[in-house]
Specification:
It is a single chain. 25% of the residues lie in helices and 22% in strands. The chain has an 8-stranded mixed sheet. Strand 1 and strand 2 form a beta hairpin. Helix 1 packs across helix 5 and helix 2 packs across helix 5. The protein is globular and about 55 Å long.
Length: 360
Amino acid sequence: MAGARVLYDFGMIPIFSYGSSLILVSGMSGLPLPVIDLSPVSLPQVDQTNINLLAAQLGKAFETEGFAYLVNVPLTFSHDRVFAIAKSFFQRSQADKLRLVKKSFQSNNSNTYRGYFPAQAGSDNLKEGFEVGPSDLPIAPEWAKERINLTEANVWPPEPVVPGFRRETEKLYGELQGLSSKLLSLLAIALGKEPSYFDHYLRGSVSTLRYLHYPAVNLPSPQQELCCTPHTDSGILTLLHQDSTGGLEVLTPDSRWVAAPYVPGSLVVNIGDLMAKVSGGRFRATYHRVRSFPGMDRYSVPFFFEPGVDCTIGGVDEDGGAVIYGDHVLTKMKGWVEFRDLEKSSGIVEHVAAVEPDIA
C-alpha cells in the first residue's frame, strides 16, 4: 500500500495511516474485536473528516461486537505504570487494605460505595478490588441517607503506607474521564447527533476507577474456572486496561465465547446496558467473562464512565422510558457481589482479624 505507514502490527492485523486518513485492515487475524486508532482526537487541529470516520468506525464496532480495542489513546500513563499503581496497593498487608473495606464487609466502616473489597474464596467472582470516584464531587445530603451513597468521598491509604498512590490515581482518573468525554462526542456523531449531545452526562459525573486483582487459583476446581462470571456492564461506557495474563472472553453475536487477548498498548472499550438503551438498540451491550489460569495472578483496571446521579437518561430518538441514573445503578447493584451484605454470612473480616488482630 504505497505511501501508507504501519502504526501497529498485531500478528496478522496491520493498522495503517495514510496521510491524515486511517485504514484498518481487518479480517486477517484471530483477534475477535475491531482495532480502532484514536490518533485524530489528539491532533492539534481538528480534522472533521477523520473525526466523522472515527465516529463511524466506533459506531459500527458497537453495533456488531459491542467491544473494540483502542490504540493511540490520549493518555500519559503506560500500561506498566497503571499496573504498578495497582500492585502498589494490593501488595500491602491485608490489615492495611481492610482498614478501607466497604461497610458491607465491615459494619464499623462508614464508606459504602468507594474503597476496598476482599476476594471471597469459593466464589466464582474471585477478585479483590479498590475503587474511587471523583475527588471534587460535593456530597449530596439526600444520598447520605441511602444504604449506598453514590456521592460519598473517596477513602485512601495513608501516604506513608502507599506513597504516591492517591496522586497517581487521581491523575489517571482525570485522564480517563477526559477520554470518556471524547468518546461520548464520537458516539453522539455516530448516532446522528451534535458532538455535544451527551455533555449533560458529564455534569456531576460519578465515574468509577477500579483496580482489580484476581488471585492465582489451582485448577481443576469447577467453581473457580471463571474468576468473573458472564455479565454485561450496567452503565454507559467501560474502558479497560488488561494485563498480558489474558482471560477476558467475549460472547460473539453467533453465541460463541472467544478470547479477547491483550494487545500491547491498547485499551478495551465496551458499551453498557444503559448506552444500548440510549442508542435505541443500535449498540450492543455484550456479555463477557474472565477465565482463570492455573497459578497465575491477573490484574485489570476498568474505568466505568457514569453520569451524575440525578442525570435523566433517555433514548436518542424516543420519548418516555427515561431513567434517573442513580436509581438505575442502585437497582443493578443488588446483584453485585462486592455490595452484598456479606459480613454476616462469610465471616471474611472476622477470619482475617483472627490472623492479623491489628485490624480491630
